[in-house]
């Protein structure tokens, strides 16, 4: 069958979730994914293969604003970036949906409020088995239901850290985690609580990723078809340029065109912009849906830094990503502007440090790398970066993708670093904080595009946005985007749950739209 009700391009957090949602409707859904299943193999859990050899990173070459080539940290598999993600599944804060004043300017408001997104956050937390504890995080937005699963417990060193943060007057909380862990019944738990989670694929499929909890449940329905190793390269429109009539894809060495009433892009923020720009035609000479020249602009990916502190006592923690601190998320007594979020990153292991100059030069002369790893307590500091029109994805005639990006909010990032550093002694650590690469690629910062967002932002004004509030292109009646491209601002917490929740919101809209079309068709 070559004509479908809905084609979804990309099977990650946005596309995989939408596929599962629409599977329930009985509509004919085609999911096109350029990658294959991520192979299940021992290397999934080997830090040398994953972090040093970049076994699961795409071989693409992109360019930064100075024309310097880099290998972007993107992952082309069924499930997309969620196959490797840390599964910290945060909601944006309620205030993130409005304008927020930052050191470097204004983080703009969303066209919908938190109240509209809330039911979908709750549903997404259920789809993705999120573990957490309400009421601990002072910035937590209101929720209509409890987390579906209890918080993942802290291991002793992290519990101590939590107690020490609390002793310093802060409000540490159990981070929301998407892992299928049953601590009360480990004999039956899918998750074995291992050290190879954040940045690794899960060998036992116990991570709440978009393959395991989006695509696979969708494929249980006979109305859903997945084509792997199928890369969409161009969208074709009708003569007036008002509707997408075909998706041209490269598959098995040839090109095929697929047709549907509705086409949904979810290729990730850079690749969705690329596909729109590559689909320029007479009616859309600057790229599809790009009459406003907004496609590709306002690229964001968080102004983050991974840092390592050395605990005076050894840190034998296995699963470290259980703690967060949001006391500096907005303006506070400590500073008049928002600084951001502090959370833990996966526990560092000695092989990961290979090639990390900051660690080798700062610590290795006095500490062996194994010693560093044994004492390491690893934090991730995330500051919101602001959408800037000149921070953008562009495509040249030869199909070269460039990401031009100048950081914003550097000062709040420094302030957050200083805050944490000033507390280290009280936290039982040596008084030094070393920046790490982790998956952030500090040598060419834009390569660490794990949290990429914002290239097709949604809004009410077609002059300043690409999509309307339903995530439909202003200029094309049947084209939607549900990956993180739609974010008009990114907040300072991890983006995946927001992409998942929004995909469920758009899923509701599409179901109503197609139902209405079907009944009006039936009536005539
Ligand atoms: C190492 C790592 C750790 C992370 N940790 C966290 C975390 O703890 N919490 C969190 O919230 N977020 C985390 N993230 C970010 C999170 O994974 C992303 O925000 C999220 O997956 C984005 O969803 P998406 O739908 O926009 O894109 P993706 O999930 O990347 O999906 C895009 C999909 O489109 C496919 N595709 C691309 N182009 C085409 C094409 N032309 N044709 C067909 N298919 C195409 C890709 O192969 C991919 O499957 C992490 C990311 C990484 C890489
Ligand atoms: S901690 Fe659990 S979910 Fe994460 S990789 Fe290990 S087994 Fe999988």
Description:
Helix content is 22%, strand content 20%. It has 10 helices and 21 strands. α3 crosses α10. The longest helix has 28 residues, at 496-523. 54% of the residues are buried. The structure holds flavin-adenine dinucleotide and iron/sulfur cluster. Iron/sulfur cluster binds next to loops.
Poorly predicted runs:
none
Strand content: 15-25%
Bound molecules: flavin-adenine dinucleotide, iron/sulfur cluster
Biggest sheet, in brief? 7 strands, mixed
Structural class: alpha/beta
Please report the distance between the alpha carbons of the first and last residues: 25 Å
Mean pLDDT: 95
Number of helices: 10
Mind telling me the C-alpha Rg? 22 Å
List the helices and strands and how they pair.
Blueprint: E1 3-9, H1 13-23, E2 29-32, H2 47-52, E3 62-64, E4 69-70, E5 100-102, E6 105-107, H3 114-127, E7 131-132, E8 149-150, H4 156-167, E9 173-174, H5 211-219, E10 224-227, E11 230-237, E12 244-251, E13 254-265, H6 269-278, E14 303-311, E15 323-325, E16 341-344, H7 357-362, H8 369-375, E17 376-383, E18 392-395, E19 401-404, H9 410-423, E20 429-436, E21 479-481, H10 496-523
Parallel strand pairs: 1-2, 1-13, 2-10, 3-19, 7-8, 13-21
Antiparallel strand pairs: 3-4, 5-6, 9-15, 11-12, 12-13, 14-17, 14-20, 15-16, 16-17, 18-19
Bound molecules: flavin-adenine dinucleotide (FAD) and iron/sulfur cluster.
